[in-house]
Design goal:
Elements lengths: L6 E6 L4 E7 L8 E6 L4 E6 L5 E6 L3 E7 L5 E8 L10
Antiparallel strand pairs: 1-2, 2-3, 4-5, 5-6, 6-7
């Protein structure tokens, strides 16, 4: 029998939050979610072609890249600020 894959959806809003929802595999189960808090309103989220990296753009002219850890948390891989050509990384 094939393994069921999680369906994941990311939403953003002016309340400075991104919410990453993991949709249930079976009827009757509840959605799980994780919130990522920002210092400015969040305007757009976009998944990489593989669906493993989440790009987030916020109202302070920053685009950040995020990846889910093995424990289910979300960690920043780095960001690009408006007017800066290099990527800053937290690693």
């Amino acid at each position: 029998m094939p393994k069921l894959v999680d369906s994941v959806v990311a939403t953003c809003s002016q309340d400075k939050k991104v919410v990453v929802w993991t949709l249930p595999k079976m009827a009757g189960e509840q959605c799980q979610y994780k919130e990522i808090i920002f210092s400015a309103p969040v305007w757009r989220v976009s998944w990489s072609i593989t669906g493993t990296i989440l790009a987030i753009s916020s109202g302070d002219d920053v685009v950040s890249l995020w990846k889910q850890t093995s424990s289910g948390d979300w960690e920043s891989l780095g960001h690009v600020d408006d007017g800066v050509s290099a990527v800053s990384s937290k690693h």
